[in-house]
């Protein structure tokens, strides 16, 4: 495989990749849940046993990023491969055991098989090949992070805070993209709205202020407002809005005194994370005019993330990974370059680069449905 002149073997060791992916799927690393400790330990041991320089760096108490490096000749930029150790919770509706790494019809099944234990296995395999061949031009670094599936992405933050990802780095996140190179990412703003009304018996509802009604109006109005925004990005499309959580009321026959909604707003250029908050606040204020006496709180949830796009001079975006073409016939197919609607670690680790020109992209095996 070749990565911008960094030559390793000409073939992909598919059996090794599958073996590592299955081993990783069998490690429960749900977040929230048991967390990444066992997965970090396995990854660290796997890299160390392959003779690769590897360390752990604490991201938060009890949660360590795993950082491995193959030293380069020093005449090329560092390539940082980003993977994450955690998975989303197992959830329900599985038709196969979620932590067995079952292989069926040429696919590995299980929680996190695509997102992103296969990507982590690819990175491990790549480092192993690089370490046994001629040194690459620049250092190749694998950062396997904790807490990518959490709202605050503590692992990615720690990478930036520790200086393990810098402005001069080329960054490639190995998220599941069906091996299609992704160079742009929507922004994300999560908000929590709480409306305070006035409780009353439903038989005398005219004396109360129905907080659920207020929130329903806000959600409806915000949906319309965001759908009507004039922003269309060539890669990322339009802004999107979802009210993911609604909770309010105390009993069927009582006017609800309060109601809470969690709002998810996906941003495309030129929107900023502040724009999302400003727009939501304006809609709430407009709505409350019709409900005298109602009050509200509106605050951010998690970390606000701006939309980003790789800089034109990013190697990982401008130069197709030649080795990827060779590997495609073995591990998947795909040609197009496009944006992606999901939030991922690659953007978080590079957040401080965004205003200067992001040098990151996404490519990895497997894909999300829907
Ligand atoms: Zn992921």
Number of structural units classed as domains = 2
CATH topology of the largest domain: the name is Aminopeptidase
Number of helices: 9
Global morphology: elongated
Helix content: 25-40%
Proportion of strand residues: 25-35%
What's the average pLDDT?
Answer: 86
CATH superfamily of the largest domain: Zn peptidases
Structural class: alpha+beta
- Computed over alpha carbons, the radius of gyration is 23 Å
Give the second-level CATH assignment, the architecture of the largest domain. Answer: 3-Layer(aba) Sandwich
Unreliable residue runs: 1-9, 320-357
Which sequence of SSEs, written as H and E, runs from N to C? EEHHEEEEEHEHEEEEHEEEHEEHHEHE
Largest sheet, in brief, is: 6 strands, mixed
CATH class designation of the largest domain = Alpha Beta
The first-to-last residue Cα distance is 31 Å
Instruction: Give me the count of strands.
Output: 19
Sequence of strands across the biggest β-sheet: 3-4-8-5-9-19
What small molecules does the structure contain? zinc ion
């Amino acid at each position: 495989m070749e990565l911008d002149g960094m030559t390793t073997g000409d073939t992909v060791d598919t059996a090794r990749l599958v073996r590592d992916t299955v081993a990783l799927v069998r490690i429960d690393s749900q977040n929230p849940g048991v967390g990444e400790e066992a997965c970090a330990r396995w990854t660290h041991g796997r890299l160390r046993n392959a003779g690769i320089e590897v360390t752990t760096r604490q991201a938060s108490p009890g949660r360590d990023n795993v950082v491995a490096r193959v030293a380069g000749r020093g005449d090329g930029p560092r390539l940082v491969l980003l993977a994450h150790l955690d998975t989303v919770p197992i959830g329900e509706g599985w038709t196969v055991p979620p932590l067995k790494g079952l292989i069926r019809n040429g696919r590995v099944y299980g929680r996190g098989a695509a997102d992103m234990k296969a990507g982590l296995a690819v990175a491990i395999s790549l480092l192993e090949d690089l370490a046994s061949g001629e040194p690459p031009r620049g250092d190749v670094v694998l950062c396997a992070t904790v807490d990518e599936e959490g709202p605050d992405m503590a692992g990615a933050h720690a990478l930036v805070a520790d200086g393990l990802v810098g402005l001069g780095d080329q960054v490639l996140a190995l998220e599941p993209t069906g091996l299609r190179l992704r160079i742009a990412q929507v922004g994300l703003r999560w908000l929590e709205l709480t409306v305070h009304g006035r409780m009353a018996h439903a038989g005398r509802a005219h004396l109360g202020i129905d907080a659920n009604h207020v929130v329903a109006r806000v959600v409806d109005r915000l949906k319309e407002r965001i759908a009507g925004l004039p922003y269309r990005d060539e890669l990322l499309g339009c802004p999107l809005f979802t009210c993911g959580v609604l909770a309010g009321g105390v009993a069927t026959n009582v006017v609800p005194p309060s109601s809470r909604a969690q709002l998810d707003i996906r941003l495309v250029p030129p929107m900023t994370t502040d724009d999302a908050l400003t727009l939501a606040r304006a809609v709430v204020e407009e709505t409350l005019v019709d409900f005298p006496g109602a009050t509200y709180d509106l605050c951010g949830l998690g970390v606000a993330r701006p939309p980003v796009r790789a800089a034109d001079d990013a190697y990982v975006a401008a130069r197709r990974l030649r080795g990827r073409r060779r590997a495609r016939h073995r591990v998947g197919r795909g040609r197009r370059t496009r944006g992606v609607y999901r939030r991922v670690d690659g953007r978080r680790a590079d957040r401080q680069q965004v205003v200067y020109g992001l040098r990151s992209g996404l490519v990895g095996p497997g894909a999300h449905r829907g």
